[in-house]
Amino acid sequence: MAEKRGEAAVENKKVVLKHYITGFPKESDMELVTTGAVRLKVPEGTTAVLVKNLYLSCDPYMRSRMTKHDEPSYVPDFIPGEAITGYGVAKVLDSNHPNFNEGDYVWGITGWEEYSLISSTEGLIKIKYTDVPLSYYTGLLGMPGFTAYIGFFEICKPKKGEYVFISAASGAVGQLVGQFAKLMGCYVVGSAGSDEKVNLLKDKFGFDDAFNYKQESDLNAALKRRFPQGIDIYFENVGGATLDAVLPNMRIHGRISACGMISQYNLEKPEGVRNLIFIITKRIRFEGFLLFDHIDRYPEFLEFTVAHVKDGTITYVEDVVEGLENAPSALIGLFFGRNVGKQLVVVAKE
Ligand SMILES: NC(=O)c1ccc[n+]([C@@H]2O[C@H](COP(=O)([O-])OP(=O)(O)OC[C@H]3O[C@@H](n4cnc5c(N)ncnc54)[C@H](OP(=O)(O)O)[C@@H]3O)[C@@H](O)[C@H]2O)c1
């Protein structure tokens, strides 16, 4: 497709949500449509930015946006028939905004489509380091990486030598939490849903130990074996049965960073948690957080993490799918554990 500025309208492929859903999402809940009439030029009199999308991020929170909420949720519901929106990496083709110029690379909220006209630019960040893979700004250097940084350093306040447990440990957030914890001199154990992921945790990310939770009939016993002295820090990504098994295994004055509870996202009736009493008896600090509240600390996170990426002390695994048409199945795969590492979709490489 030609993409000269100001040229006549071009076609734009996009992924739309067909209808609101309950339960587990299916590929058929979304579809790829082609629309015409996108001019590769920002309309006069606006401060919008027109971008070509390169990499799109598949994130668990997007499931919530596929359901119609009666009360406003912490993120807006998707609008059926319109392009799904989410985090991505893009190249600026045209801009009327003083902070963005043609040719800049940006990451932030964009559309699941080839070209997006972005009017709300407050969710857009100009990419400072382009000498690392640009796809990293969907994961390692983008929203999930920043989540790992805030959720671990700010919420958990780790100390050298502490015992750390991470669930969904090989995912976009978890793999980085584990590496941050190792940098801090902690003892780190992760759980994941396949032997391939368990091997990654131990062999690639340097976890001290890891286990496949799907092969453990008694999660409480599995944790006791790995943490005979107890857990100081639990980085919570899954909720449900894992959380219930962690609580009795926490140490006195332990901290739980409630980042996500993916095991509950598709359930129409959430599971109960029976062991909450241990929050009192073990004097646990159990704190939820959302990365939006900490966005002013993104530059600090970026400098810290880029330095470790460049000196090789932090590594990152991505699960890369090619083509917008494959984005729906990639997104759904998160809820079945199909992704190995950060799930992203390549729309275009340049
Ligand atoms: N608080 C915030 O601001 C914030 C920001 C970003 C992300 N989050 C949360 O952080 C968590 C991790 O996100 P991510 O982007 O790193 O995702 P991810 O781990 O890359 O992908 C999701 C993984 O969750 C696991 N999973 C899926 N269903 C599960 C179930 N029923 N029980 C247990 N595990 C299940 C699967 O791994 P296995 O094969 O290991 O089961 C799957 O690969 C999510 O809960 C997400 O909502 C929170």
Automatic annotation (TrEMBL):
CDD domains, alphabetized: double_bond_reductase_like
Subunit structure: Homodimer.
GO biological process, one term: response to stress
Record family assignment: Belongs to the NADP-dependent oxidoreductase L4BD family.
SMART domains documented for this protein: PKS_ER
Transmembrane domains' residue ranges: none
Residues covered by the Enoyl reductase (ER) domain: 49-345
Protein name listed in UniProt: Enoyl reductase (ER) domain-containing protein
Record has NADP as a keyword: yes
